[in-house]
Amino acid sequence: MRKSDFFFELPEHLIAQYPLPERSASRMLCLDGTTGRIDDRMFIELPELVRPGDILVFNDTKVMPARLFGRKASGGRVEILIERVLDSNSCLAHVRASKAPKTGTELLLDGGFRCVVMGRKDDLFLLMVLDGRTVDEVLNAVGHIPLPPYIDRPDSVSDWERYQTVFAKASGAVAAPTAGLHFDEAMLERLAEKGVEQAFVTLHVGSGTFQPLRVDELAQHRMHSELCEVSPAVVAKINEIRQRGGRVIAVGTTVVRALEAASLEGTLMPNKAETNLFIRPGFQFRCVDAMVTNFHLPESTLLVLVCAFAGYSEVLTAYRHAVERSYRFFSYGDAMFVTRKPYS
């Protein structure tokens, strides 16, 4: 399949720039992967769609305040996006400047912090924080929430809470696992009261999640790598649920990738490693039965994943329906509940 197969027209006004006042107040489009049926519902109705004995699997990654601003010693402005913290005082980052800084260049950050370019790794810069300070100190003092590029505004105080799930725990992401943003404590309690189990994996979402497909043929695309962990306890819990006939419901495409990467040998196994799994039509899902997800960018790997899960024509039909009904798109937008299309 080709990149252009995953294009759809999206009016700019449907891209959500702010979250709704309440996390669970979003609309929710339901797509039955077996029949192709589409239903317009509200996210607050999610407990009606799950069954006692199912398990919801969440991504507990926490978004870092990973965007920094500063200047070169020569005066040119720089914008830094931390991609990965390596140790207490070094990290890999994207650096946006009028001219790419060379190794040895000192960068003067807001708040009087300093760092130096130590080298390059592919398209990332290796940075070291100076003066005995740590990366965490710098981020907590002057870092900004790295809102996605399609949110056309600076981050605000409210984003520190709302661009973070209520169950965020493991710091390391530069983008939120956005399907999880719809869940508040009241919703989690309602699901538990219904007898729906909960489990958590960790996948640190990287900035590559926003990159469009850059090649025409899907088979030529090379996925960015992200750190993920599926613990032995979670594996045991999911396997028990499956043996009892319960469904595994992934909250977000990141959870789908984490669980399916840990199932590539045929059964779900504990896994703590980087994954660059690119799920596209024809992929055989071994673990996930349904998912909660947001609406994704045209020609993106995330849209490709959802099409692989619920059917190419079914998903694009659902997206056209969402546009016609003025659903809100992307990170702060509305949700979908999608069940897997059976194998033919």
Automatic annotation (TrEMBL):
Could you give a GO molecular-function term held by this entry?
S-adenosylmethionine:tRNA ribosyltransferase-isomerase activity
Q: Which InterPro entries match?
A: QueA, QueA_dom1, QueA_dom2, QueA_sf
Major subcellular location class: cytoplasm
Q: Where does the source fall among the domains of life? A: Bacteria
Listed A to Z, the keywords are: Cytoplasm, Isomerase, Queuosine biosynthesis, S-adenosyl-L-methionine, Transferase
> Which GO terms fall under biological process for this protein?
tRNA queuosine(34) biosynthetic process
The EC number(s) this enzyme carries: 2.4.99.17
Any one cellular component term from GO for this entry?
cytoplasm
Q: Please give the pathway this protein is involved in.
A: tRNA modification; tRNA-queuosine biosynthesis
Please write the reaction equations for the catalytic activity of this protein.
Answer: 7-aminomethyl-7-carbaguanosine(34) in tRNA + S-adenosyl-L-methionine = epoxyqueuosine(34) in tRNA + adenine + L-methionine + 2 H(+)
Q: Tell me where it resides.
A: Cytoplasm
Note the subunit structure.
Monomer.
Assigned protein family: Belongs to the QueA family.
> What is known about what this protein does?
Transfers and isomerizes the ribose moiety from AdoMet to the 7-aminomethyl group of 7-deazaguanine (preQ1-tRNA) to give epoxyqueuosine (oQ-tRNA).
This protein's name: S-adenosylmethionine:tRNA ribosyltransferase-isomerase
Species of origin: Methylocaldum marinum
